[in-house]
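Limitations
The structure tokens in this dataset are predictions for the assembled complex, not deposited experimental models. Users should treat interface geometry with appropriate caution, especially where small molecules or nucleic acid strands are included. An illustrative entry is reproduced here so readers can see what is and is not provided.
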Amino acid sequence: KQEVTQIPAALSVPEGENLVLNCSFTDSAIYNLQWFRQDPGKGLTSLLLIQSSQREQTSGRLNASLDKSSGRSTLYIAASQPGDSATYLCAVRPTYSSASKIIFGSGTRLSIRP
Amino acid sequence: DTEVTQTPKHLVMGMTNKKSLKCEQHMGHRAMYWYKQKAKKPPELMFVYSYEKLSINESVPSRFSPECPNSSLLNLHLHALQPEDSALYLCASSQGGTDRATEAFFGQGTRLTVV
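Predicted assembly:
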């Protein structure tokens, strides 16, 4: 059974710092891994999608990497801003599911201090 | 257009009420999902529809009844809910079918309170 873990559960850093969020998964048989952002009480916003054959994806100040063999992904945020404060969730799509199940990690609550 | 629209945004219902949540997408996606999210927890999968057919039911109580009337719409009918069913209900869609390596898009959710 696929399990997804995110460490740390919460992180507080001063504005301007570069930071890394971690995601690990137990089964490397995945189609892709997706990073989401969620503001309190809101829905999920897709940030980056990495296919299983890819090593990384970039969008603006965000860079996500994938090491499928070791079951790890990182989300790198450069020059953090207070507006980056949110919960960040990673999710994998396992190949064993015929109906494209998406399995989430527990999230990292990020707070950027002005 | 990468939007998944959910209505209503907020819903308060009594334990004897019947209500429905609605989800709509116009991206041509053939897989649609219902998730339930409690505070400070990750989303939990409830149902998956693939090509308008129910393909996954994660042992959800029968007081939740999903319906997919067409490829763009997904409903969740609610009846005789309990206070512990209060949560954020999220709808999502993705390409589905044999092309499973595609991006999932989520709606803004319906905040449900059962009194």
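Some entries come with short summary sentences. For this one: Chain A is about 0% helix and 60% strand.
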